[in-house]
Amino acid sequence: MDNEVSLPRDFDALRTMILDRREMLPKRLAQIAAYALSNPDEIAFGTAASIAQTAGVQPSTLIRFAQHLGFDGFTSLQSVFRERLRERQVSYEERLSALRGDTHGLSKNRVILNGFLTAASHSIETISHNVEEDVLASAVDILAGAETIYLLARRRSYPITAYMAYAFGKLKIRNQLIESTAGIDPEILSFAQPTDAAIAISFSPYASATIEHAAALAARNVPVVAITDSAFSPLAQSAKVWFEAAEGDFSGFRSLSGTMALAMALTVSVAEKRRSF
């Protein structure tokens, strides 16, 4: 086919293509695109049937998605995801399977600890690869110039903003952790001005309050720096700058190690930037 010459042959090029076309994708294809970017290992190792079931679509949708991107079928698209892992001698999933299945005489507690340490290591490695220098610099500039930094998160993302609030306080940086038990978060956020900024963190399934608050702030020209798991995240749509943090998991429990490292890097970098003012 004519466009075969321009087909992406590595994951980074494929990811760029998907992001460039995300606004034009039909609903079901956008659903697959979001799943693929958030779960590249599953796309690489799964069958069309298993991937479709997990992503909540029909197997035929995978074929349509591949063809929409210019590939002749899903297998051709899948080869790009597999190439991404080719340099690894042992895949992440295989390492976790080995931890679950072959304890080598270790106690169950030690196996669980090793599993979470492996997931955390994978998360940190992935986030380190995904964070771009210019995006990091832009986020630090926004936050360092803010009069007040508002911190938005719920559920499993909340510990990240709670620790950022603690660290910002120690660094004498004005911040407001949005956690009102009185239910007046919208009223607190109404004080935010374009001279302020917000950090919003949420992962699938996204916390509706975080998404709504971030959108409301963006509509009032308050810059939002987001940490989320996909370019298709509703949080990314409200952000002036956003980071992709796809955390690994062990036995269904996702790590926060990579996100915490990124959050603390932002916190300390903002403090350092302010010292240069």
Automatic annotation (TrEMBL):
Residues of the HTH rpiR-type domain: 12-88
- Give the highest taxon in the source lineage: Bacteria
Q: Which UniProt keywords apply?
A: DNA-binding, Transcription, Transcription regulation
Per the UniProt entry, what is one GO biological process?
A: carbohydrate derivative metabolic process
Indicate whether Transcription regulation appears among the record's keywords.
yes
List, for all copies, the residue spans of the domain called SIS: 139-276
Its taxonomic placement starts with: Bacteria, Pseudomonadati, Pseudomonadota, Alphaproteobacteria, Hyphomicrobiales
Q: Name one GO molecular function term.
A: DNA binding
Protein name per Swiss-Prot or TrEMBL: DNA-binding MurR/RpiR family transcriptional regulator
Looking up InterPro entries in the UniProt record yields: Homeodomain-like_sf (IPR009057), HTH_RpiR (IPR000281), RpiR-like (IPR047640), RpiR-like_SIS (IPR035472), SIS_dom (IPR001347), SIS_dom_sf (IPR046348), WH-like_DNA-bd_sf (IPR036388)
